[in-house]
Amino acid sequence: MLKILHTADIHLGAKFSGLGNEGASQREQLRATFKNIIATAIDERVNIVLIAGDLFDANQQPQRNIDLVIEQFDLLKQNNIPVCLIPGTHDSLDSSSIYRKVDFEGKCSNLKIFADENISYKEYPGLDLTVYGKPNLSNRSSISPLKGLKPSTSSKFHIAMAHGSFYIPEKIAEDDHVFRLEEVKASGMHYLALGHWHRVYSCSEQPPAWYSGPPEWIPDQREKGAVLLVSLSNSGEVKVEPKKLGLRDYDELEIDVSGVQDLATLKARISEGAKQNLIRKATLKGLRDAELIANPEELETELGEEFFHLSVMDKSHPKLEEVSEATYEEQLIINRFIKLMKRQIESSEGEEKDIAENALQYGVALLDGKEVL
Ligand SMILES: [Mn+2]
């Protein structure tokens, strides 16, 4: 049996400007989680570690991040664990690449960096394994990272690493290092370790091809980070187990303020399930009573201490006491809409009238360009 730790998109050195004062702390946490990945690889006695691109957030790095990587790869070496790496889109192998400035392979004899322009491979006879990969040479490319991939040795196990976008019609930019399902199917690999997408995601069952996502929370990510522990049995069966290593968690909360009576209730709703390591994005929506005045910045300051980071966005719209078509020019749709709805309100009663009144308020807000739904 072969056991692998697959990770990618660690983004060491990321700036986190959106986190304000907590940015530096999360940047430090990336380093701590990276150490945790290496400790997990040693604990779990994996045979090899694969890093499928974007180990670094940029090709310019403080010396301490370079030292950290060398120190941690050395820990793997002391435990007889090799490590393979491909340059990704953030740390691509361009002329100013960190992998050209620093001789990581010279300092870590257990490290293989795939640096040939085309797919190349590294054989591990002791593991009966061959690993394949190619670097991303720039941030953008229309060439598939799987181009030319095929088993090239007599190893029992063949595993590829790639950093790019899985092709989904109309969802993917053509120059985002795109590869297709047919290429995965025809690759002859037992497993494909992918990077670039920032979540755990399986593109193919046979052969299994997975994105690990970042191990620790980075901006635009919508879940807690993980690494993948992959086991390949001698009979060719592959088991993939995501292990959540990230410290910081993330959630999004949408609050319809139309049912919220007062500020205390609104605060309680925002704070529901607050945790010290949670990054929460709260959005206020709907039509609010004119008396309910909520200042997002004040809410962030007042409730922020209950979270690692809280952001509040107000997309709600005040309910108008009186809606009049006279506010809008005759030829505008909104003017016609108000006239029609008023006629509807006058001619209905009971629940129907309530619905028509709500429809008038929502309709005016929407035609005004507000996001109330
Ligand atoms: Mn990335």
Structure description:
By secondary structure, the protein is of the alpha/beta class. It has 3 domains: 2-244, Purple Acid Phosphatase, chain A, domain 2 (4-Layer Sandwich), CATH 3.60.21; 249-318; 325-367. It is 27% helix and 24% strand. The chain has 9 helices and 19 strands. The chain has helices at 23-43, 63-78, 98-101, 104-107, 181-185, 263-271, 296-303, 333-347, 350-367; strands at residues 2-7, 48-51, 83-85, 111-113, 120-124, 129-133, 157-163, 165-166, 178-179, 191-195, 201-204, 209-211, 226-232, 238-244, 249-256, 278-285, 287-288, 309-314, 317-318. The strands form 5 sheets. A 6-stranded mixed β-sheet has the order 4-3-2-1-13-14, with no helix packed on it. A 6-stranded mixed β-sheet has the order 5-6-7-10-12-11. A 3-stranded parallel β-sheet has the order 15-16-18. The protein is elongated. The two termini are 53 Å apart. The structure holds manganese (II) ion. Residues 9, 54, 88, 90, 196 line the site of manganese (II) ion.
